[in-house]
């Protein structure tokens, strides 16, 4: 919503809980938003938008920033004409992710200013501020959210922050600021550090930080959603809530810490604020190590304030998700289990193949890893085991980062060959049915260019390519996989059948698009 | 200190309308002029995993999550999810569950989430008009009739159930 009010020219991103809804909302309000094949490309497109003098918003989940880290670290050196705001949605407690990395470390490592909203209202205001800061200092800005800020709804008032209107897009040659060859990058790095020092001074004086006056016996430094828990359980305490957490407003933190008897830092995840404060010689109390894991809540904040690090009661586990009845992935895992395959897996709905009754996935690391890891297994296992290795990857994941793995397979084929299974269910099901380049429809479901997997795979030089629907004839499907395992050739099997939950919507989009072309 | 917020937890399985029910409740509270915060856990929800949503409303609400043992109401749409969520319920908290509704009286079984909101509505001070408006705002038109029916069935039912306990 803020992106829309701020006249963002283009929103790009790759889906990932809990960040997915941002672009979908922006689009539904009338903004221009598009899914990229992966986060790196999304950020690169955003960089181009900002080089053109326009405003860009790039969204991803926390692990997405790993993929986009390469452009991030260097765009920090460049001079932007427009605005570039990168939204990183962290997931402490791993409600729906493979790790709980704390992306505040990226701001520090890359030298990118960072804002941390604590509720929906601030998510709105800080997006506007981030655009303003980005244009004023000509640097990218990170907007770091967490699950509880993304997946919570609080009442939002619009237009509470005034920023200048967007300028018309225009390109100015400026080689030393945008061409990061070493000769230009060296002075650019110096310039970045100078800019960060200026921003730090501004943050101390006028940054989006908030002081809640209270008792002088207890002071709390906090940021993000943790602020809400602090206000809930320690209404009497003095609180310094940091809105901009890189570069830190160290002088404000120093005088705040000096003004109270006990100064505790309450933060979710890594001891990022604590380390920042202590490095600057500010004495603060840190939370016990057990609170680094998982997310905070009111109860845990109370424990931290009571210095209580006794073991916590284990939460009752809810019912784990399972593949939907009638899911097309089921037939595939039944076959892989029957054939006793060694399955190099990947991330998506199909990751659930690891759970009973299938238990037919042996590895999962990060998106796209299925193919590379499978090849490594093939290269090193004894022949009779190597011949049972299969890489399994979803359609959206294949486009995201599986294609380079396939190139590796063609370039460095294992002696026993290899079998890659692309599970093409016509959508990015895991994150809520987003389109991707293989569906041939845009974020808004309109017809666009389509990447046809079988054509792509053949063009790379794989000769053994099969396209099948695994559901109607499971025995036939299993025979096909067996045949592929038996040959030392490289095989790609595209198992194509729409996700059961998406079938109706896909049919509807296709019908609409058909009507429009007629 | 301002008065304490009202805490409601809605729980069930993916696809049962947990989030929809909490949207409607938050909407009613908001349109009645209260501060509202709502938070949900729905990782990979489309595949029948546990889903829950916290709704808090009052004069001023901070944390979007209901603290443990402080829920005033726990509304559970799937019977087997009662146990998983029971820990949030406060001492005098009220449990609202599907057995309080005669499912055969619903023209569309999927509207059980709204029927349970009807049960909940007896305990809250919002007007029927506010509920009706919120239901209409949050549901597509073709579902209005079935859901308004379900809501009134739930709202009427509670009296009988209340006596039984
Ligand atoms: C770098 C990164 N970006 C995004 C995600 C979130 N994510 C996990 S799997 C997935 C896509 C799954 O889609 P697909 O491969 O089509 O499988 P499906 O769920 O449809 O079976 C996404 C977006 C992630 N885990 N890592
Ligand atoms: S959402 Fe689709 S892909 Fe995911 S488990 Fe269900 S049917 Fe399968």
What does this structure look like?
- The complex is a heterodimer of chains A (518) and B (165).
- Chain A is of the alpha/beta class and 518 residues long.
- Chain A is 40% helix and 17% strand.
- A seven-stranded mixed β-sheet of chain A has the order 2-1-3-4-6-5-11, with helices on both faces. In chain A, strands 13-14-15-17-16 form a five-stranded parallel β-sheet, sandwiched between helices.
- In chain A, helix 20 links the parallel strand 16 and strand 17.
- Chain A is globular and about 75 Å long.
- Chain A starts with a helix and ends with a helix.
- The model of chain A has no long low-confidence stretch (mean pLDDT 94).
- Chain B has one domain (6-156): Pyruvate-ferredoxin Oxidoreductase, domain 3 (3-Layer(aba) Sandwich), CATH 3.40.920.
- In chain B, helix 2 links the parallel strand 4 (71-76) and strand 5.
- Chain B is α/β, with parallel strands linked by helices.
- A five-stranded mixed β-sheet of chain B has the order 2-3-1-4-5.
- The model of chain B is unreliable at 160-165 (pLDDT under 50).
- Helices cover 36% and strands 23% of the residues of chain B.
- Chain B has helices at 18-31, 82-85, 112-121, 128-138, 144-164; strands at residues 6-13, 35-41, 50-58, 71-76, 89-96.
- The radius of gyration of chain B is 15 Å and the shape is globular.
- At the A-B interface, strand 7 and helix 11 of A face helix 1, strand 2 and helix 2 of B.
- Thiamine diphosphate (TPP) is lined by residues 14-16, 39, 61, 63-64, 67, 98, 347-350, 367, 394-397, 425, 427-431, 499 of chain A.
- Iron/sulfur cluster binds next to loops of chain A.
């Amino acid at each position: 919503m803020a992106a829309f009010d701020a006249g963002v020219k283009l929103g790009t991103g790759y889906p990932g809980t809990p960040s997915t809804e941002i672009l979908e909302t922006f689009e539904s309000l009338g903004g221009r938003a598009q899914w990229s094949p992966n986060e790196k490309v999304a950020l690169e497109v955003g960089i181009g938008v900002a080089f053109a003098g326009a405003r860009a918003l790039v969204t991803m989940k926390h692990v997405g920033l790993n993929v986009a880290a390469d452009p991030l670290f260097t765009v920090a050196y460049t001079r932007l004409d427009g605005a570039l705001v990168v939204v990183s949605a962290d997931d402490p407690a791993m409600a729906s992710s493979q790790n709980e990395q704390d992306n505040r470390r990226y701001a520090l490592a890359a030298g990118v200013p960072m804002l941390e909203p604590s509720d929906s209202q601030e998510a709105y205001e800080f997006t506007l501020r981030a655009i303003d800061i980005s244009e004023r200092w000509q640097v990218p800005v990170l907007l770091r959210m967490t699950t509880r800020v993304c997946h919570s709804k609080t009442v939002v008032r619009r237009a509470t922050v005034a920023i200048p209107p967007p300028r018309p897009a225009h390109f100015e040659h400026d080689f030393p600021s945008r061409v990061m060859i070493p000769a230009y990058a060296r002075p650019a790095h110096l310039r970045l550090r100078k800019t960060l020092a200026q921003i730090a001074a501004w943050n101390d004086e006028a940054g989006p930080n908030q002081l809640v006056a209270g008792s002088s016996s207890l002071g709390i430094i906090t940021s993000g959603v943790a602020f809400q828990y602090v206000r809930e359980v320690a209404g009497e305490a003095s609180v310094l809530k940091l809105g901009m957490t890189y570069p830190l407003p160290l002088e404000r933190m120093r005088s705040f810490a000096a003004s109270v008897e006990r100064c505790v830092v309450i933060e979710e995840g890594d001891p990022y604020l604590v380390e920042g404060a202590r490095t600057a010689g500010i004495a603060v109390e840190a939370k016990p190590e057990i609170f680094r894991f998982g997310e905070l809540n009111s109860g845990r904040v109370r424990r931290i304030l009571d210095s209580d690090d006794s073991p916590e009661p284990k939460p009752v586990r809810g019912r784990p998700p399972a593949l939907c009845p009638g899911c097309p992935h089921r037939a595939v895992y039944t076959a892989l289990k029957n054939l006793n395959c060694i399955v190099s897996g990947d991330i998506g709905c199909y990751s659930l193949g690891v759970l009973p009754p299938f238990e037919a996935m042996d590895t999962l690391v990060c998106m796209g890893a299925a193919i590379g890891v499978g090849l490594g297994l093939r290269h090193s296992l004894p022949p009779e085991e190597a011949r049972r290795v299969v890489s399994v990857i979803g359609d959206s994941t294949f486009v995201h980062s599986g294609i380079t793995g396939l190139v590796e397979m063609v370039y460095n084929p294992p002696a026993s060959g290899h079998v890659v299974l692309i599970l093409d269910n016509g959508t990015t099901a895991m994150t809520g049915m987003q389109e991707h380049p293989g569906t041939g429809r845009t974020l808004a479901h309109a017809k666009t260019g389509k990447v046809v997997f079988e054509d792509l795979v053949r063009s790379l030089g794989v000769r053994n390519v099969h396209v099948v629907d695994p559901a109607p004839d499971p025995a036939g499907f299993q025979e096909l996989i067996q045949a592929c395992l038996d040959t030392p050739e490289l095989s790609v099997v595209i198992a194509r059948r729409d996700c059961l939950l998406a079938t109706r919507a896909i049919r509807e989009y296709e019908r609409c698009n058909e009507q429009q072309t007629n | 200190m301002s008065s304490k917020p009202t805490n409601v937890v809605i729980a069930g399985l993916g696809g049962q309308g947990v989030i929809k029910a909490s949207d409607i409740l938050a909407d009613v509270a908001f349109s009645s002029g209260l501060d509202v915060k709502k938070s949900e856990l729905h990782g990979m929800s489309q595949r029948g995993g546990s889903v829950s949503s916290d709704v808090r409303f009052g004069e001023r609400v901070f944390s979007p999550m209901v603290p443990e043992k402080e829920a005033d109401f726990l509304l559970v749409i799937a019977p087997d999810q009662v146990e998983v969520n029971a820990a949030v319920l406060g001492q005098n908290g009220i449990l609202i569950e599907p057995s309080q509704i005669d499912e055969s009286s619903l023209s569309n079984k999927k509207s059980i989430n709204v029927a349970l909101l009807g049960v909940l509505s007896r305990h809250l001070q919002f007007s029927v008009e506010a509920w009706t408006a919120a239901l209409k705002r949050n549901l597509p038109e073709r579902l209005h009739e079935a859901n308004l029916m379900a809501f009134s069935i739930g709202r009427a039912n509670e009296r009988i159930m209340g006596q039984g306990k």
